[in-house]
Amino acid sequence: MKHVGLMGRVAVSFCISTILPLILMYLMFMGYTTMSMNVVTLIVAGLFFIGWIYMGIVKPVDELKAAARRIESGDLDFTLEAETNDEFGELMQAFDEMRMRLKETQDEKIRNDNANRELITNIAHDLKTPLTAIKGYSEGILDGIAQSPEMQKKYIQTINIKANDMDRLIDELRYYVKVESNKIPYDFQHMRVQDYFQDCADEIGLDMESQGIDFTFENSIDKDVEMIADPEQLRKVINNIISNSVKYMDKDYRKIALTLEDAGDFIQVNITDNGKGIAKTDLPYIFQRFFRADSSRNSMKGGSGIGLSIVKKIVEDSGGRIWASSVEGDGTTIHFVLRKYIRSVQEVLIDG
Description:
Blueprint: H1 4-29, H2 34-72, H3 87-142, H4 149-180, E1 189-192, H5 193-210, E2 214-219, E3 226-229, H6 231-247, E4 255-263, E5 266-273, H7 307-317, E6 321-327, E7 331-341, H8 345-351
Parallel strand pairs: 2-4
Antiparallel strand pairs: 1-3, 3-7, 4-5, 5-7, 6-7
């Protein structure tokens, strides 16, 4: 019970000031000598002092020792309450705060361990799927199942696609290791928004056309506006988002739109698809490591669940922010902002 130590000291004071005089009066009434009463006084006072020591010092120390033993055994699911407001109370409060921090660290470790186990399971599945396909199609060629040149070409193309899927996954994992150790090699530059994104759009457009996806690019930002970004890492952001959009498209007519908007000191990039959309309950978590809205392990979708977490890391390291909006059945938009590059007066004069 809280404040037991304080109540104990109050009880001791009450006993010394009230009960002890009553005992002495009783002894005087019974005819005891002064010396006898002094001895009794010392004994009673000593007992009260021992009680005060126990309640104020020994008991808190015993509680701390018991708590330390529980922590040593790995048990952090308890609360250590400060019973007084003195130094021992402060010590117990500090001890309990340490326990809570250890508990948070322990819980975080458990979450990371579970996530790592899930990642390994995902990797094993996502590597096995293309490997199985490669093995099957290669055996088909060796066994003479694909006899015509057209059939052989189709088999070889499928093998190549599956090999590229494996290569992409391995690259993603290698990059994830860099993300975890904060070793992403950034080369921040200031560059024209229009020129950079037009080049991206041209490249993406060709890729989308080959996959039968309608791609559009719209830019409402002035042609002279510049931004600060790492061109290689920003390209990775865009490619990862679009790759994720393509992965979850479920309609016969598929489309992706890349649009740029002016947002004051920032430029806003929107990548919109008409895919299956994301559930409201999943939307807040899509940028977390290992999170996958589709937990069914559909082999057509695959993925390790780390692509969007890498995207978030790059955008935030670039001084930007990323978020998503989605309607189930209609599609998803990934939005992110990047800081504009504002030229100094000297740079303007030099260029002018």
